[in-house]
């Protein structure tokens, strides 16, 4: 039987029942009067994977109920059920010691055995249907409650309860023999270190724990647990907003524990924490002080584990000295950083680091293994590629098993490795732009709670850590994490560390609750395209999943459709650049969406599989001079595709035919702006602008709706409808090339208004009553409540505006600096800015519901996905 969550040991639906059972009766009516009283500890199976000793249920219950971490986790089924345990503990048990052991009850199942010493006899309740069966001279009583079978026995004054009859029988056998956990010297040594004054003690059997966890985490590499020692013992301390497990691990020679590699080596702090980016999900950090001394111990560890020969054979096939290329320059720190990514992403982005005694010497030494055909400069970081496979694994162990042929660069005293090129580039962006954890006070506060001196430190940061767990469990169990991600994210930090002293490792496991989550901008993935992004990436709706996907074209004229995991669903090369933005249409009125757009030569309709929809593409009789406008006048999906082609404006039906009755005549000068449609009252207005500035306001049929007496002042900006109290006060507005607000009224009159801008060209949008402008290196927002003016002293893109949680956000791109800036409603920059990117960007939900993502292209032909929290 598979265990679907980490704490659910075949007690998912019945975890509370055992304590309902206990609260109903205390059983010794089935006591065997012959044998002398035994100890509850002696009943626990000697191969138990986990052993819990509860010293004080009252104290534990009180601590749990006031602990914020526990309260956040109550939404998880297993934790909720454990709470029911506490609620049903009867008063006459709450002052007694209680033992719980997790043990294999079959080839593919684990169960819990509960044991406590109960010298006083009581009777079984009549409310349950009991069946008894003798075993070894003692009656085992069984009953069924809510389809769950329970087995109860009292033997030698020890009360035994389990869902597994096999575990009860094994406990009876143990109580009747001299075999017990106390005969295991490592268990006994660990057990003697626990503090019985704490409400709960936990003991872990590393020889058995991987077998239990593999049912909860079927996709996790758990074999390393067998090399973590024999037994560990912890005491639990719960405070209002944190928890701490502190204790020891035993690294006896017989266990050949990896932790024994640190024996005799002085630990230290972890300067590499300055390298941790804000999108860290997990960081495994190792400080060995002297690498040469550690490496001697590590080679002996491999020899005892019978892996040295295998590694030696692979090292011998490299064709160069691994000592020279990789080990000789190591400065005693190394580690692996797993980065947060989207749930849909195929691979987990990872960064490895090794501190160098001399970084220049390290790069020179690594030349003998570098790929001679690859070198790249990214923001003045020289990136090279490791040619042989698994070099880091061979030199430093399985911590680097995912670094197959990594890309690497230098940052200060550290050599940094990325498991792919775009991950390394994104990490460089974070370092350069200051998106690192030491800049967050909550991170340094969490570190203050653990010892600064250790050999191994593992840091987990949510929500990325929850994403890592999501990858390790069964697919059908991921919904629970997705549904509770907000609560899980408030358990912001978890830190585990080990300091080795001969055959003992002093260990701490600390978790910290953080009520107010600090929003961050974090790169989730990067995708290489054939060339630089053209135009703006766009979100389009997948009509099957009702979720967004990205469509983008690059300078090779290739059009891509990309899902939230960064996977290219299809790509196809077009005859030229797409003009303007892509529209989605439901051509066949069956709720299936297609992409509609034009190049200079063709009008395209493409289905979601990237295939042409007949009779499209339609060849245009003249070269298009502006993007097609897609109009659905009455919302009945009777689409019209209106395309400027020089001095002609063509109107196509959804059948790919020019519309009969379209009366618009040829213009005097070329139409170089996309036609726009406005509805005022019950009337439609189509606005067509010539390059001369002349404006035509026409009906659906192309007939003049309002004669225009004046020319609209020259403007490259779009037109926007500003609705007044009456039709006469309603106007179409834009920004002139001279920085004035231009108003075109429904009677054809044009008015220009000074709005305190420079007499210069600017980029203009109008949203929610706000004038949003970029002009002369400034981002300007003009509105009644929160106007602001920010001087960025750079060439700025057109502004972008969107809403997040009901609050306006403004954005711009500084193309020549590869920077994306976002500002709140009063002009304050958002945390974690700027982002790296050079193209126009788009913002929307992409994968995780309720979370916005920003999609932007880079000069070197990559598409980046940032999560905006």
Structure, explained:
- With 869 residues, the chain is of the alpha+beta class.
- It has a 20-stranded antiparallel β-sheet. The protein has a four-stranded antiparallel β-sheet with strand order 21-51-50-49.
- The two termini are 38 Å apart.
- The N terminus is likely disordered.
- It holds the Pfam family DUF3352.
- This is DUF3352 domain-containing protein.
- It comes from Phaeocystidibacter luteus.
Which features does this protein show?
disordered N terminus, DUF3352, DUF3352 domain-containing protein, 4-stranded antiparallel β-sheet, alpha+beta, Quinoprotein_ADH-like_sf
Q: Return the average pLDDT rounded to an integer.
A: 89
The Rg value, from CA coordinates, equals: 34 Å
Envelope shape:
elongated
Tell me the β content: 35-45%
Approximate helicity band: 10-25%
Task: Give the biggest beta sheet.
Answer: 20 strands, antiparallel
N- to C-terminal distance: 38 Å
By DSSP, the count of extended strands is 51
Assembly state (oligomeric):
single chain
Contiguous low-pLDDT stretches (5 residues minimum) are 1-34
Structural class call reads alpha+beta
Number of DSSP helical runs: 18
In terms of topology, how is this protein built?
Layout: H1 17-24, H2 40-43, E1 50-54, H3 57-66, H4 68-73, H5 77-87, E2 98-106, E3 109-117, E4 131-135, E5 138-145, E6 148-155, E7 158-162, H6 165-175, H7 185-191, E8 200-205, H8 209-216, E9 231-238, E10 242-250, E11 280-287, H9 291-304, H10 308-316, H11 322-327, E12 330-339, E13 350-356, H12 359-365, E14 370-378, E15 381-386, H13 391-396, E16 407-411, E17 414-418, H14 421-432, H15 441-447, E18 456-461, H16 464-472, H17 478-483, H18 485-490, E19 493-501, E20 504-512, E21 521-528, E22 533-542, E23 547-554, E24 558-562, E25 568-573, E26 583-585, E27 594-598, E28 602-606, E29 618-619, E30 629-631, E31 640-645, E32 648-653, E33 676-680, E34 683-689, E35 695-698, E36 704-706, E37 720-722, E38 731-735, E39 740-745, E40 750-754, E41 763-767, E42 770-775, E43 778-782, E44 788-791, E45 800-804, E46 807-814, E47 819-823, E48 835-836, E49 842-845, E50 852-857, E51 862-868
Helix pairs in contact: 1-5
InterPro entries: DUF3352 (IPR021787), Quinoprotein_ADH-like_sf (IPR011047), WD40/YVTN_repeat-like_dom_sf (IPR015943)
Protein name: DUF3352 domain-containing protein
Pfam family, one: DUF3352
